[in-house]
Design brief:
Layout lengths: L16 H11 L1 H22 L12 H12 L7 E7 L7 H16 L4 E4 L3 E2 L5 E8 L11 H13 L4 E6 H35 L2 H25 L9 H29 L4 H28 L7 H22 L1 H9 L9 H11 L4 H11 L1 H16 L7 E2 L11 H12 L6 E7 L5 H16 L14 E3 L5 E7 L7 H19 L6 E6 H35 L2 H26 L5 H4 L7 E2 L2 H29 L4 H30 L5 H33 L31
Parallel strand pairs: 6-11
Antiparallel strand pairs: 1-4, 1-5, 2-4, 3-4, 7-9, 7-10, 8-9
Main location: membrane
Pfam families: MMPL (PF03176)
Keywords: Cell membrane, Membrane, Transmembrane, Transmembrane helix
Length: 742
């Protein structure tokens, strides 16, 4: 099991812990594999046994809208699920006699339907275009969407019995069910496509089935382990239902990346004549070290989400950090074990044509030297042009608007959403609504109700708000009389300027006037519009703090890793350039209308509120993967005594195949998420895919080599206390590793 050390290699006792762990795993592969399987199984089974502790509405309260939600929760209102039967004309004017007959029949049939607690009398629209019958469902409102079938069967029977009118069922439960069905199918398709697409790309990259399968195996086992661990962690920090999707997205990306880095280097060393164990150890010492640094950088970036003081971001941070940590551990333990056990079988079974192409790519690269030549021959010109182009792409980000998607941004492919549009057109008060939540001593309940009634009537005469219905304003008071809630509807969609103006007027004028005569009251205005406005303000406040945290800690990690202040600083600047370009591209695509047709969306003229902060940490973390890997190869060449210019060429060309393959996997997976129905997933998928593409091409092929060529030996400058004696140079290195770009 012993090997002869190459000249300049440190003795075993001086090897880093990561190398010693990888060496042990390679020497004891069955033990390492068994331990990994047990670890993944314990994490996954333990997580499922513990169950998920989901975040409550109080946990997710942000800003004044959040305070309104908390006040409403204090009222402990009975909030049953409500559906509606909407009767409209199939075309032209409504036949009132036919509509009345259908309404009477609907009341009779719905009262006899299982799961119905109460049926209201029909309410006509102000313009006479519709009749609306409210239906209160029995049972737990959280499970109402699962108990809709009897009501839908009754609605279908009514539709058959009254063909002269259009009869539809619409309400919160039916809309939620339709969206769950649509979005559930979307996510299922995305998750199912992600694996075969990733595997297909890896088969093309490696030309062998086992080599392609190992990264997917490591990535998916890491995902399962992280899902279990995040479920356990939810009992310390509540989780949200989006955490597992992000774990899959991040886990697949970094798991495949780390395996690619490692397997490529191991194959390179075997091609030089190293034995299996030696090749694994050298891969651990080089690519394994880069994986650890990359993982730390990604985890630091994700940890920045905690500073957003938002339970959703905290949940995503926990899931992302766990899956990255597990992926790093797997790449240093079970991956070396698998490679050592498989030996040359990792290159079996070979796909004939793809194997020849892969073998050709493993030799001296041909395309990349040509691509690098302009940056290395005229670095200043290449730098000015490339940075200028990226800055120009980033300029639109200055005009970024942030809003939450509203009901109008949901896909209109389902009958439930089409019925919702007709409902809000005929009954504006059932659409967008603000609500005022007031908490006061029970003795003042009557004064509070009077104040709210006066507010509603005053606002009802303002064109920014919907008129008050004939039966008076909608005011609810808690059983103990301490909490009152007033619904104030607006006829405008949630993200329109008019809806925002109505919120501002309600908060700045009507509510202060109404509350002026009351004492000992706590009040807040909430609703979808308020939530969007308050959350956008929250993100704008927290984004600089998160960015500063990520930048400073990443800078420290890079300085300690490369012992160079200059490398650390250029790493930060290049990643900022990449993120800025991605922001600008998002604004260009989604705040206009020109891309609606090709990408299949309706522009909301803004970016989804949570996206800029989340994109920053994800992109910054994932970009560091490539940067650390490439710069590590450049430093290897410099430490062997190669000139700076040739070292830059060697580092980029020798890592080009790995970086390109990893980037293609990421771009493909993220692009799949861009095909989902909702606007937020489209923006996330396209933002991530575009940024990774820019990072792996323009940044790595033009900007990075230009900067490092211009700086020369200054790349490796550091204060004296950070310097360490460079390792001895390797006496023998194959000449083919140095690629001529002259």
């Amino acid at each position: 099991m012993n090997r002869t050390l190459a000249e300049g290699e440190p003795a075993m006792g001086k090897r880093p812990m990561t190398v010693r762990v990888a060496r042990w795993s390679a020497e004891h592969p069955w033990r390492a594999i068994a331990l990994w399987v047990v670890f993944v199984a314990v994490c996954f089974v333990g997580g499922n046994a513990a169950g998920l502790n989901e975040a409550t509405d109080e946990d997710q309260a942000i800003g004044e809208a959040g305070r309104a939600s908390v006040i409403e929760i204090h009222g402990d209102f009975d909030d049953p699920a409500v559906e509606n039967v909407l009767i409209t004309a199939p075309g032209g004017e409504l036949d009132r006699a036919a509509a009345d007959a259908a309404a009477a029949d609907a009341i009779t049939r719905m009262k006899a339907t299982a799961g119905v607690a109460k049926v209201d009398e029909p309410v006509p629209a102000r313009d006479g275009s519709a009749l609306l019958i409210g239906i209160t469902m029995a049972g737990d409102p959280d499970t109402a969407s699962d108990r809709l079938q009897p009501l839908q069967d009754t609605t279908e029977a009514l539709r058959q019995a009254h063909p002269r009118v259009r009869i539809e069922e619409v309400g919160g439960p039916s809309i939620n069910k339709a969206l769950d069905d649509t979005l559930g199918a979307d996510f299922q398709r995305a998750e199912l496509l992600s694996l075969p697409v990733t595997l297909a790309i890896l088969i093309v990259a490696f030309g062998a089935l086992i080599a392609a399968g190992v990264p997917v195996l490591l990535a998916m086992s890491s995902v399962f382990a992280a899902m279990g661990l995040s479920t356990l962690a939810s009992h310390l920090l509540p989780a949200t239902d989006t955490t597992n999707s992000v774990i899959l997205l991040i886990g697949l990306a970094v798991g495949v990346d780390y395996s690619l880095f490692y397997i490529r280097r191991e194959r390179e060393e075997r091609a030089k004549g190293r034995g299996h164990l030696d090749a694994v150890e050298i891969a651990a010492e080089t690519s394994g070290h880069a994986v650890v640094v990359s993982g730390i950088a990604v985890m630091i970036a994700m940890a920045g989400l905690f500073l957003a003081t938002d339970v959703v971001f905290s949940s995503l941070a926990v899931g992302s950090i766990l899956v990255v940590a597990v992926s790093v551990i797997g790449s240093l333990t079970v991956l070396p074990a698998l490679l050592a056990k498989l030996g040359r079988w990792v290159d079996r079974p070979r796909v004939p044509l793809l194997w020849r192409l892969s073998a050709r790519r493993s030799g001296a690269p041909r395309i990349w030297p040509a691509l690098l030549r302009p940056a290395l021959r005229r670095p200043l010109l290449a730098l000015v042009i490339s940075v200028g182009a990226l800055l120009a792409l980033a300029v639109p980000a200055a005009g970024m608007k942030m809003k939450f998607p509203g009901m109008e941004d949901l896909p209109r492919t389902t009958p439930a959403m089409q019925a919702y549009d007709r409902l809000t057109a005929a009954f504006p008060s059932t659409g967008t609504a603000h609500y005022l939540a007031v908490e006061a001593p029970a003795a003042e309940a009557a004064q509070v109700k009077a104040a709210l009634t006066g507010l509603a009537e005053k606002a009802g005469g303002d064109p920014l708000f919907a008129p008050v219905e004939a039966d008076g304003p909608e005011i609810e008071q808690s059983a103990d009389g301490t909490v009152s809630v007033l619904q104030v509807a607006t006829p405008y969609h949630t993200r329109t300027d008019e809806a925002r103006q109505s919120l501002d007027k309600l908060r700045d004028v009507y509510v202060p006037e109404a509350m002026a005569g009351l004492s000992n009251v706590d009040y807040a205005v909430g609703g979808d519009v308020a939530g969007s406005v308050d959350y956008a303000a929250h993100i704008r406040q927290k984004l600089p703090l998160v960015m500063a945290f990520v930048l400073i800690l990443t800078f420290v990690v890079m300085v300690l890793t490369f012992r160079s202040v200059v490398v650390a600083l250029t790493s930060i600047l290049l990643n900022l350039l990449s993120v800025g370009a991605a922001y600008g591209l998002l604004v260009l695509v989604f705040q206009g209308t020109w891309a609606e047709g090709p990408l299949g969306f309706t522009s909301m003229e803004s970016i989804v509120t949570w996206l800029p902060l989340f994109l920053f940490v994800v992109l910054f973390g994932l970009s560091m993967d490539y940067h650390v890997f490439v710069v590590s190869r450049i430093r290897e060449a410099v430490q062997r005594g190669v000139s700076n210019r040739d070292a830059v060429a060697y580092g980029i060309t020798s890592s080009a195949g790995t970086v390109s393959s990893a980037a293609i996997v990421m771009v493909a997976v993220f692009s799949i998420f861009a095909t989902l129905s909702t606007i937020d997933m489209k923006q996330l998928g396209i933002g991530l895919a575009a940024a990774i593409l820019l990072d792996a091409t323009i940044i790595r092929a033009v900007v990075l080599p230009s900067v490092m060529t211009l700086l020369g030996d200054a790349n490796w400058w550091a204060p004296r206390f950070l310097r360490r004696r460079p390792p001895a140079r390797h006496a023998q290195e194959p000449e083919r590793e140095l690629v001529s770009v002259h």
